[in-house]
């Protein structure tokens, strides 16, 4: 039997890519509750947010510093649209951990530049 196509069903299945079982487990609800949502019953805002966070659709809900950041299946997308894969993040983390003077200065300049691009003040060094 084909499900009724509602906005909730489209959101859960196609936008978030979650099965009924995955959604129920993620939101601490029953599969029957998820089926009610699929038929049009209102999804609680906290459950919608969990679904978006889980599928990487939203990072700005974590902290204000993540505003404009997104995740794809295997990359982080910066507010400027740059794609970062896991190797790049690990390499950057390693370089910053070295704390050489050149790296420290480059980090300071990079953060300053990225904040300008994001339209945020330079609150910290």
Automatic annotation (TrEMBL):
Pfam families with a match to the protein in the record: DUF3653 (PF12375)
Superkingdom to which the source organism belongs: Bacteria
Protein name per its UniProtKB record: Uncharacterized protein
Organism of origin: Veronia pacifica
């Amino acid at each position: 039997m084909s499900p009724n196509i509602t906005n909730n069903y489209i959101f859960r299945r196609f936008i978030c890519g979650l099965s009924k079982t995955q959604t129920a487990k993620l939101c601490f609800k029953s599969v029957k509750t998820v089926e009610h949502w699929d038929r049009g019953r209102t999804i609680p805002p906290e459950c919608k947010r969990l679904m978006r966070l889980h599928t990487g659709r939203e990072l700005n809900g974590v902290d204000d510093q993540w505003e404009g950041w997104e995740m794809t299946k295997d990359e982080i997308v910066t507010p400027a649209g740059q794609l970062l894969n896991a190797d790049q993040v690990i390499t950057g983390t390693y370089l910053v951990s070295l704390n050489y003077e050149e790296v420290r200065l480059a980090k300071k300049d990079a953060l300053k530049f990225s904040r300008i691009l994001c339209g945020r003040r330079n609150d910290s060094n």
